[in-house]
Amino acid sequence: MPNMSYCRFENTLSALVDCINAIEEDGLDTLQSRYEREAAESLVYTAKRFLAAYETAKSEATELAMGLLPE
């Protein structure tokens, strides 16, 4: 079931922290199947996309607030 819009970031953060903890505790040995390794690699790619999208949106919001962009 997908996350509800009002809590998607909170729920995703909790799951991501769980993944980080697993890797910090067990290293890449925690990725025991090919599917888990592929998912971890996709997660890295997706996290980079998230960061880029967030930084772009944050920059645009700042420029809009400063009156540098049309509404």
Describe the structure.
The protein has 71 residues and is mostly helical. The protein has helices at 8-26, 34-65. The radius of gyration is 17 Å and the shape is elongated. The chain starts with 7 loop residues before the first helix and ends in a 6-residue tail after the last helix.
Shape: elongated
Number of strands: 0
Q: What is the gyration radius calculated from CA atoms?
A: 17 Å
Q: Output mean pLDDT.
A: 89
- Give the low-pLDDT segments: none
Total helical segments: 2
Q: Let me know the largest β-sheet.
A: none
Helical residue percent band: over 70%
Measured distance between first and last alpha carbons: 35 Å
* Percentage of residues in strands: under 5%
Structural class: mainly alpha
SSE succession: HH
What's the structural blueprint in terms of helices and strands?
Elements: H1 8-26, H2 34-65
Brief account:
It is built from 2 helices and no strands.
Note the main attributes of this structure:
single chain, 71 residues, mainly alpha, 2 helices, 72% helix, elongated
